[in-house]
């Protein structure tokens, strides 16, 4: 190539310019000629081709003209029909495709629902298997126990008045006892202890006694509230006769022996029966304790009738037959807490006080208490200056000389108001027995005891064991008073200083309980008198009437049920058996407990078991086996029927083979929230019933759809909108265990079952979830404040999610002062604090908190009462006011909390034996 290039270059070098010009000229003429020739030839061919195409087109048009126009229309219409048919078929196919897509989505959702239902059915089947096993075991346990369920027996009542018998001799009267002077045939075990009261307006004038109008009216009214009162004298067990106050027949004389008592009139009472058996003669001191001895029956023949009064001589008083009653110094009834002094501080201004004037004993066989007075004054002079005494043995102004007192008795100084002011400043108060050793009790001594307990001064009785105190056969006065013989007066100061502050508060608290319950009012005194007689006869009291819940719907209407939403559950999780409703057993020990225990067991109210109205259930048990309720009594933990069922025999639980609980939900016109709460209860083990307390003004809608909860649901309408309705002892509650729950409280099933097991170990306490505590605040009138902050210490468990015993529902309405419930209604708050106060006051134990829950959240719920900014301020005031009513703050703090460790832990069958006794 290089060689060719070189040659071309050499040729061009030898080429001349003339030749180049010639060549270019030839090219310029030749090329256009050739181009013109070929273009002309292309145009001729194109024209020929176009003429041919035109010719063919004209031939085609000629053929179309020959075609039939009708056939063409038919073909066009056929094509249009085909097009419409295809369009319709396409639309139908599109619709079918949409339907198939929907069916596919529904089938997919149904498949998911079936899977969830299968999982739930599997869990339900597992629970039913456990329930069946539990039922078989329960049947075997029942066969082994062979103890039939007892129902209350029918009452057996007499049908005629007492027959007339010969009158009793003076010797038999003096030695009367219940076995010798009482007709037990009229008071059978099932009689119900009917009591007949002689109308004082009719019979008192016939007797010739002077009866205070206040006593007549008050006794008639208070006895009408007693469930044992009967208007049929033919069936009566006991007959009450109001005699009067035992005034002298001649108001100007000084003799105390001749009193206005018409024996002939008393023995002519229509149901006297010749000897006065089963009669109780009431002589209640009221108007003037300093007039007369107060003994209307001295040197009088009363046959075989029991005597109830404040003044007795040792010769006249018949132990176990006659009754010492307090003077009728209080109101007819009702709340008396405002008359009481606060229990704190433990030590007051005066360590010991006394004000009185003694009746001269000169010229008689009775020595006065001058030596005793000198010993007391010497004690005061030798006491340290820190101990302040107030001892006045002469009244200023002196007692009216016309007053006629038992020989050597001590009269009251001043007025009731002045004496109360001194007693409120006294740690102890001295009560001196009459110098006359023949007296076992006087109206003035009982009045001093009454005033001391009312003011919180601890009574110190100098007089030995001859002094009889009111209802001493059933009330343990050793827990409220100090008693010393007069000969040991020199040891008095040492004994008073030896008591610690805790002992002082215990004495003061017990004294206030005895006063409030048994001595404070005429109604309290009369109820105690009748209960003492009934206890002697070993007759249980009438059952406390439960609150009849007004159903929200009629008997034939059942709200429509809806299936609750599916809940993801673990198929292998079994919290307990799903059983049919099983009420707590009743009437097991009501008639035998008094024979078994006698008067040994006392509750912290200072009351023996038989002084309570009978409850139709067994009350809870405390670890000290003290009674808190009816004659059924409390059984200690572990001393029950033996065995506790399969699931409880290997875990926490009480001492009963089978037990269930009732859920009480308080709601106020929040149907959606209530429906969600009921839906969450489905499949909950041990659930006996759900009681919905409808607190709203408007009744629930009949069209409301209630979700199926798996247990009976009773909807009761409250008489009015009140938070106290949460604790009404409705008749539809059949179990001892009651779970109080707010309608917006979210609790898991395992939490509820675990709390139920813990409650069975602590039946006398509040067991629940949200904990609170009270704290002392020096800046808030030196009182306690309500605190809801998270803390390691608590003193309250709110009843918005807590287990309580059914007995406390009764106590809330019968034992709690009405002022507390009124305060709850006033502020629409604090009912849970009131229940904590009550239980702590009765048991002297703190509540039990379970799990780590401290509060509850309900994001979708309407605004609640606790959302108000004044909520906590009101709760501060509640604690302050409740402490005033109780006289102290009974709440006790604790750092104890029960939590589950192995409660839901799955353990292989071969290792379950290792954890059987954990």
Describe this structure in words.
The chain has 918 residues and is an alpha/beta fold. The protein is built from 22 helices and 27 strands. A nine-stranded mixed β-sheet has the order 14-19-17-16-20-25-21-26-27. Strands 7, 8, 9, 10, 12 and 13 form a six-stranded mixed β-sheet that branches. A five-stranded parallel β-sheet has the order 1-2-3-4-6, sandwiched between helices. α7 packs across α14 (522-536). It is elongated and about 185 Å long. Mean pLDDT is 79; it is low at 247-259, 568-572, 597-652 and 907-918.
Quick recap:
The chain has 918 residues and is an alpha/beta fold. It contains 22 helices and 27 strands.
Q: Let me know the largest β-sheet.
A: 9 strands, mixed
> What structural class do the secondary elements suggest?
alpha/beta
Separation of the first and last Cα atoms: 110 Å
Strand fraction: 5-15%
In percent, how helical is the residue content?
Answer: 25-40%
How many β strands by DSSP? 27
Defining traits:
about 900 residues, alpha/beta, 9-stranded mixed β-sheet, 6-stranded mixed β-sheet, about 10% strand
